[in-house]
Design brief:
3-stranded antiparallel sheet
Length: 93
């Protein structure tokens, strides 16, 4: 994506809206996302044979920021969109 977007483009990402830290309290969305992640996403990523990082369960902001910077993006913005199910990010080249 970094090569495709060039110097003046942008990348928008929608991902599950979970807490930035794991807590037992959580909420219904976080519990559901953990279930899907542990029982589907992580095993598929590990078994696919591709270039999966097997990053564990649910993508949190700091993990996304780390992956984006490793891919060559200089900054990640959490967009101020209030939507219960997803969090939206903008990646800057």
């Amino acid at each position: 994506m970094r090569r495709l977007v060039g110097e003046n483009g942008t990348v928008l990402i929608a991902d599950e809206r979970v807490g930035d830290r794991f807590t037992a309290a959580g909420n219904d969305v976080e519990w559901m996302m953990y279930g899907w992640s542990v029982l589907h996403c992580l095993p598929v990523g590990m078994a696919d044979g591709g270039e999966s990082h097997c990053g564990g369960t649910v993508m949190r902001t700091d993990i996304l920021r780390h992956y984006a910077q490793a891919a060559g993006f200089r900054d990640v913005e959490v967009l101020p969109i209030d939507y219960f199910f997803f969090r939206f990010y903008r990646l800057y080249p």
